[in-house]
């Protein structure tokens, strides 16, 4: 991820099978500190997507993080086939990012 501003960023991911990379630009549409962050891809992106990360305080001094991401693959049926291959990689990226986020927060 490369930040362009406080609300805009560029994301890049490898396509499984060595088919190259895809890149998309996102815009944070809503940011309610301590509650949730919502974003959408920009019109010139290779992948159309939206997402929401919600932070839920639990009684035991911990926080539950819920991530919802939806995306529409380009190129019709071919793109849908590639998206099925790409989904496990995307899930791994998200899990790794959440683990890194957890490590940073716990270190504070």
User: Poorly predicted ranges (pLDDT <50, ≥5 residues)?
Assistant: none
CATH architectural group: 2-Layer Sandwich
Query: Share of helix among residues?
Result: 25-40%
Spatially, the strands of the biggest sheet line up as: 1-2-3-4-5-6
The helix tally amounts to: 1
**Total domain modules:** 1
What CATH first level would be assigned? Alpha Beta
CATH homologous superfamily label: START domain
Give the CATH topology.
Alpha-D-Glucose-1,6-Bisphosphate, Chain A, domain 4
Could you describe the largest sheet, including whether it forms a barrel? 6 strands, antiparallel
Please tell me how large the radius of gyration is. Answer: 15 Å
How would the blueprint of this fold be written?
Elements: E1 2-3, E2 8-14, E3 21-32, E4 36-41, E5 48-57, E6 63-72, H1 76-107
Antiparallel strand pairs: 1-2, 2-3, 3-4, 4-5, 5-6
Organism: Fermentimonas caenicola
Protein name: Cyclase/dehydrase
């Amino acid at each position: 991820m490369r930040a362009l501003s406080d609300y805009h960023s560029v994301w890049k991911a490898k396509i499984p099978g060595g088919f190259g990379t895809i890149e998309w630009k996102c815009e944070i549409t809503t940011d309610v500190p301590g509650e949730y962050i919502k974003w959408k891809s920009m019109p010139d992106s290779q992948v159309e997507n939206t997402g929401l990360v919600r932070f839920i305080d639990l009684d035991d001094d911990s926080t539950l993080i819920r991530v919802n991401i939806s995306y529409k693959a380009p190129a019709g049926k071919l793109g849908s086939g590639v998206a099925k291959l790409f989904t496990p990689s995307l899930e791994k990226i998200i899990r790794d990012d959440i683990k890194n986020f957890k490590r940073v927060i716990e270190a504070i």
